[in-house]
Design goal:
seven-stranded mixed β-sheet, disordered N terminus
Length: 339
């Protein structure tokens, strides 16, 4: 398992993989990148070590993956051999990089490649499988032009953008510096790391809290919001997962290390339309029968309107279906003086 220092600084020392994927690759992108491959499809084709690696990095079992052939002269194999955990990958098309992610594992599987993608017919007439495979974090949309990447890397010739390429730190460091901090944080792998160590790291390094908390949020979301949509635990509305946060039921700063790692019991999905903010401030809480209650301090006109329209009279579903979370709801109401 990689060290925590690799997690905090992964993109600074990584290789950069450039993977062309224009319109002709759209079907494959839809099938294994935009829609990750489910464990029931990939697990039967892999050995125990590869399965464990993917399960650590992708706890939900949903794995974005891609592959390359060995090439007519074996040239792609030598490039693939240089890939390692933590390398960045850009998907290319239309003269720019449009997706970014970070490598989580690599393996060889002709049978899995054949299940996922039709073979490539080469100039010599052979149909080669995309068996040199790799997985990566959920891709993030970017827009970096070939010209900007070439200028950043200070190369006198254009980067190779017509076929699969792997570049070292002379290219990766300056090119990855073009990513904004949010994107760089979001593409870093999380699942392959020791989560308790990550949680303790928050308490030790206040200066890194913003970036590191993004990593914890990504990990929590693999438990609470693994799909494209979810349900707010408080108002009960279904919505796109981008409008939900994976929130701690008991305030995180009050949790012991064991409680921080008590997943999924310590966490719930809360919407950004009001529920997360009201709960975080203790202005709404859950009583010992699972009913949503309002604090006497809730006086803002708009907030009161939201309470009446969306929350009043509701019983929280996970209080009933997930009894192990009840003690955390109790800790929340006690913290804010609600009896």
């Amino acid at each position: 398992m990689p060290e925590l220092t690799d997690l905090l600084d992964a993109t600074h020392r990584a290789n950069l993989i450039l993977q062309p994927a224009g319109p002709a690759a759209r079907t494959n992108l839809d099938g294994t990148v935009y829609k990750p491959v489910d464990r029931v499809r990939w697990a039967p084709h892999l050995g125990a070590d590869d399965r464990r690696s993917l399960e650590r990095s992708h706890p939900s079992g949903q794995v974005p993956m891609w592959g390359t052939t060995a090439g007519q002269r074996g040239q792609m194999r030598s490039r693939w051999d240089r890939i390692r955990y933590g390398d960045a990958i850009f998907f290319l098309g239309g003269n720019h990089a449009y997706l970014a992610a970070t490598i989580t594992h690599k393996w060889v599987s002709e049978s899995l490649a054949d299940e996922l993608w039709p073979r490539k017919r080469s100039a010599d007439g052979n149909a080669r499988p995309w068996e040199l495979m790799f997985s990566f974090t959920d891709p993030v949309e970017v827009r970096l032009s070939y010209a900007d990447m070439a200028e950043a890397s200070a190369r006198v010739r254009a980067l190779g953008t017509r076929e699969f390429n792997v570049y070292g730190t002379d290219v990766s460091v300056p090119v990855l510096a073009l990513l904004d901090q949010d994107t760089a944080a979001l593409i870093r792998p999380v699942g392959g790391f020791d989560y308790p160590s990550i949680a303790r790291r928050f308490d030790e390094l206040d200066a890194e809290v913003t970036t590191t908390r993004r990593l914890e949020q990504r990990y929590l979301r693999t438990w609470i919001l693994p799909g494209d949509s979810g349900v707010c635990a408080l108002c009960g509305r279904s919505m796109a997962s981008s409008f939900l946060v994976a929130a701690h039921i008991k305030r995180r700063s009050d949790c012991s290390d064991d409680e921080k790692n008590d997943l999924p019991a310590i966490a719930m999905a809360a919407c950004k339309f009001g529920c997360d903010e009201l709960y975080e401030r203790g202005l709404i809480w859950v009583d010992d029968r699972g009913r949503l209650m309002k604090s006497k301090d809730l006086s803002d006109v708009e907030a009161l309107s939201y309470w009446r329209a969306k929350l009043r009279g509701r019983v929280v579903d996970i209080w009933q279906t997930r009894p192990e979370s009840r003690r955390y709801f109790a800790a929340h109401r006690e913290r804010f003086g609600h009896s």
